[in-house]
Specification:
The chain is an alpha/beta fold and 659 residues long. The protein contains 23 helices and 18 strands. Helix 3 packs parallel to helix 4 (149-155) and helix 20 crosses helix 21.
C-alpha cells in the first residue's frame, strides 16, 4: 500500500487538473466484480476551494523529463519526487472505492523516461484494475502526448474517458511555455480517439470511451482573448465531439519571466464556463457570445451581454415564444424554459406564475411580456414571497392548533400510522372532506372541538385508491410514495393536495406547474430525490472486524430504501450495511440476501485494524487536493451542507495545510 508521504506528493502534483467529472458512463457491474458507472455522475465530497471530489486524482509519477514553464513538476523544478507502482495504485483505488470515498480513478503522470514508457505503465495500471481486481467503476486516463498510437488505442478500450490537454489556446504560446509539446501531439490523438469511438458506435459495441474525451486550457497564462478561447473550444467540440472543455484560471505556482505574477481572476474562468454552457445547451455560437478580439464582460453574464446587444429581438411573449427564443432570455434556463412550455398548455402564465416556477425575474422581466404586459404590479420575485404564497394556498398543519377553523366548524383530523397504506386509507375519505388535516405526526395538540379520527390501514380502501391512480396516472403512485418520505409534518397534506387534483381532473397533472398544489408537490419530491442522490456520494463505509462494511447516516428524509439498490448493484459481492441512525433502521446485504432490520439508536461497531489507516490516507488526500490560492468555502457548504458532516472522516480532525 502507498504511504501517506508519497500520496501527498502525487496528489498535490495532480490537483491542477480541473477535470473532476464522473458522468457519461453507465458501465454495469459484472458477476464477482465491484463497482459500476453512474451516468449522471456523483460528487463524493467538496474541498474548501469549492471543487467537487469525485475521483482519486493522482499521478503515477511526478518525475518529469519535460520542462513546461507553468508546471510545478517540470524537470528543473526543485520539488520532492515520487512514483507509485501499478499494484499500489490498484490497492488504493479499491480501498477507497469500497468505503465510498471515490467514484473511480483519474490517472495522470509526468513524462518519466519517455512518452511510450509512461503511457505503457499507465495502461498496465488500468488493465490490472479491470482484469485482476474486477473493478467496473469509472476510470479517466490522461493521455501522454507523443505516445505510440497503439498504446492510445489499447488504453481507450479499458477506460471510460480520456483527455489530452490542449493547455494553451495558441501554438505560439505552446511553443513559448511548453517547448516539448506541439499542437499536433495533442490534436492527433484526439482525432484518433474520435474516429475510433465513431467506428465503435457504428458497430454498436460501445466499448471505446463510453464517457467520451475532454481537454483543458489554462486561462491567463498567455495573452489570448476569451473570443479566441471560445472559438477554439467550439472548433474542438465540432471536430472531435468532445464532452467537455475545462478552463483553469492561471495560478502562479512557479515563477518565470514569461509568466504573469498574479492569479487570473476566478470570475473570468466562471464567465468562460457560462459561455461554454451557452454553446453546448442553448444554441449559441462563439461568434454571438464574444465579438472578435474581445474578452467577456465581468459585470454581467454572457447571455445578458448578448441580449443587451440584440434588444431588437425583445421583449418576447412567454405564452407564445418558441423554445429556441425562451432559451435566449436572461434569467430563463433550460429547466425553466421546459417548465414554461408545459405549464402554458393549461393556462396563460403571468409574472406570479413565473416566480413560482423559479424563473429569475430580476433579469428576465426586462426581456419578456406575459399576456402582453411588461410591468409587475406586485413583486413576486422578491426572496421568500413566492414561497409563502404557494404554502398559503395549501392546508397547513400547525402542531398546536390542529382542528381549529375560522368559522368555528369542526375539522376532522385523520391520524395515520405513517405508512403508505395508512395514507391511502385516510385519503379515501379525506379526498371528499373539503376541510380536513391528514398527518402521521404524534406531537399535535388538538383544538377543543376537533374530531380525531385514528386511521387503521384498510387493504380494500387502500387498493381502491391505488387502482384509481393506476387508471388515470400510474406514475403518480411513485410520486406520492416519494412525498410520504419527506421528513416534515406537512408531507401528508402535500400528497393529499396533489391527489385531490388528480381526482378532480381525472388525468395527469404534473405539468400544471402554475398550480400551487403541483408546484409544492414537485418541490417536495425534488428535496427527497436530491438528498438520495447526495448520499450516494456522502455515505461513508467503515470496514468492521468481521469484514462487513458499515455506513451510518442521518438524512433529513426517509431515503434508506431509495439508496440501497444503488449500493446493492455497486457492491454486489461485498457484505455491507447502511444504517439510518435517526429512524433506527438498517438494510443489510451479504451478496445473496437483502433484509431490513430495526436497530437501536447507538450501535457499537468494532472496526478492522486497517480502517483507521484508510481514513488517515483519505484525510491526507482531501487536504492535498485543495487549492489554497482559490478559497471558496461558501460554495463548499452550499454543495455539502454542514448537517451532513457528522459521518464524513475528511471533515473531522485531520492534517491541515498552511494557507
Amino acid at each position: 500500500m502507498i504511504d501517506a508521504e508519497r500520496l501527498k506528493i502525487l496528489t498535490e502534483s495532480a490537483k491542477y487538473d480541473v477535470s473532476c467529472s464522473s458522468s457519461g458512463s453507465a458501465r454495469a457491474n459484472k458477476a464477482g466484480g465491484i463497482g459500476n458507472g453512474y451516468a449522471a455522475g456523483i460528487c463524493h465530497s467538496f474541498t474548501p476551494d469549492g471543487r467537487c471530489i469525485s475521483l482519486l486524482k493522482i499521478l503515477l509519477s511526478n518525475r518529469c523529463s519535460y520542462n513546461c514553464l507553468y508546471c510545478p513538476n517540470r524537470a528543473d523544478a526543485d520539488v520532492p519526487r515520487a512514483s507509485a507502482t501499478p499494484e499500489e495504485l490498484c490497492e488504493l483505488v479499491m480501498a477507497f472505492y469500497k468505503r465510498n470515498y471515490i467514484e473511480g480513478l483519474f490517472l495522470s503522470s509526468a513524462v518519466e523516461r519517455s512518452p511510450d514508457y509512461t503511457m505503457e505503465r499507465m495502461t498496465d495500471t488500468v488493465i490490472r484494475l479491470r482484469k485482476v481486481y474486477n473493478f467496473n467503476g469509472y476510470i479517466h486516463l490522461k493521455g501522454i502526448p507523443h505516445a505510440d498510437r497503439r498504446l492510445v488505442s489499447r488504453a481507450a478500450r479499458y477506460v471510460d474517458r480520456m483527455s489530452y490537454n490542449i493547455e494553451l489556446p495558441s501554438e505560439k504560446s505552446l511553443l513559448l511555455l511548453a517547448p516539448q509539446k506541439s499542437k499536433e501531439s495533442v490534436l492527433l490523438p484526439m482525432k484518433q480517439l474520435a474516429a475510433e469511438k465513431r467506428e465503435d458506435a457504428e458497430a454498436k459495441k460501445h466499448t471505446v470511451l463510453p464517457a467520451g474525451q475532454t481537454t483543458q486550457m489554462i486561462v491567463g497564462a498567455s495573452p489570448e482573448t476569451d473570443s479566441q478561447i471560445l472559438r477554439l473550444s467550439e472548433a474542438m467540440y465540432r471536430r472531435f465531439s468532445l464532452k467537455r472543455v475545462y478552463y483553469s484560471a492561471y495560478v502562479p505556482v512557479v515563477r518565470h519571466a514569461s509568466l504573469p505574477d498574479k492569479c487570473t481572476g476566478l470570475l473570468r474562468e466562471h464567465r468562460l464556463y457560462q459561455a461554454d454552457w451557452l454553446m453546448r445547451f442553448y444554441g449559441f455560437s462563439a461568434e454571438e457570445i464574444a465579438p472578435d478580439g474581445e474578452n467577456l464582460p465581468e459585470a454581467y453574464d454572457p447571455k445578458c451581454a448578448w441580449a443587451l446587444r440584440n434588444m431588437q429581438l425583445f421583449p418576447v411573449e412567454v405564452n407564445t415564444a418558441p423554445l429556441e427564443m425562451l432559451l435566449r432570455v436572461p434569467g430563463i434556463g433550460t429547466m425553466g424554459a421546459y417548465r414554461i412550455l408545459k405549464a402554458r398548455k393549461f393556462a396563460s402564465l403571468d409574472f406570479a406564475d413565473l416566480a413560482k416556477m423559479r424563473i429569475v425575474l430580476k433579469r428576465a422581466k426586462h426581456f419578456i411580456t406575459c399576456g402582453g404586459k411588461r410591468r409587475l404590479r406586485a413583486h413576486p420575485a422578491r426572496a421568500g414571497i413566492a414561497r409563502r404564497n404557494i404554502r398559503a394556498a395549501l392546508p397547513v398543519l400547525h402542531p398546536r392548533t390542529c382542528g381549529e377553523r375560522a368559522d368555528g366548524a369542526i375539522m376532522n383530523l385523520y391520524l395515520t400510522d405513517g405508512t403508505e397504506e395508512g395514507f391511502f386509507t385516510a385519503a379515501f375519505r379525506a379526498c371528499t372532506d373539503a376541510d380536513c388535516v391528514v398527518t402521521s405526526a404524534r406531537n399535535v395538540q388538538l383544538a377543543a372541538d376537533a374530531e380525531l379520527i385514528d386511521v387503521q390501514a384498510d387493504a380494500e380502501r387502500c387498493e381502491r385508491v391505488r387502482r384509481f391512480l393506476r387508471r388515470y396516472d400510474a406514475r403518480s403512485l411513485g410520486e406520492i410514495s416519494l412525498l410520504l418520505r419527506r421528513g416534515c409534518a406537512t408531507k401528508e397534506m402535500t400528497a393529499l393536495g396533489y391527489l385531490r387534483l388528480i381526482v378532480q381532473r381525472r388525468a395527469p397533472v404534473r405539468d400544471m406547474l402554475a398550480h400551487p398544489a403541483v408546484l409544492e408537490a414537485m418541490s417536495e419530491i425534488k428535496k427527497v430525490t436530491q438528498e438520495a442522490h447526495r448520499f450516494k456520494g456522502f455515505l461513508r463505509f467503515m470496514e468492521c472486524s468481521n469484514g462487513i462494511y458499515y455506513a451510518p447516516f442521518e438524512p433529513d428524509n426517509d431515503v434508506l430504501e431509495l439508496l440501497f439498490p444503488h449500493f446493492a448493484r455497486r457492491f454486489a459481492a461485498m457484505p455491507f450495511a447502511i444504517h439510518d441512525v435517526a429512524r433506527q433502521k438498517a438494510m443489510l446485504s451479504d451478496g445473496r440476501r437483502r433484509m431490513l432490520v430495526h436497530t437501536e439508536e447507538k450501535v457499537d461497531i468494532p472496526l478492522s485494524e486497517g480502517d483507521q489507516t484508510m481514513q488517515a490516507l483519505w484525510k491526507e488526500y482531501y487536504a492535498s487536493v485543495n487549492i489554497a490560492q482559490r478559497p471558496h468555502e461558501k460554495q463548499m457548504k452550499g454543495y455539502m451542507p454542514v448537517r451532513y458532516w457528522k459521518f464524513l472522516p475528511e471533515k473531522q480532525e485531520g492534517p491541515k495545510r498552511p494557507q
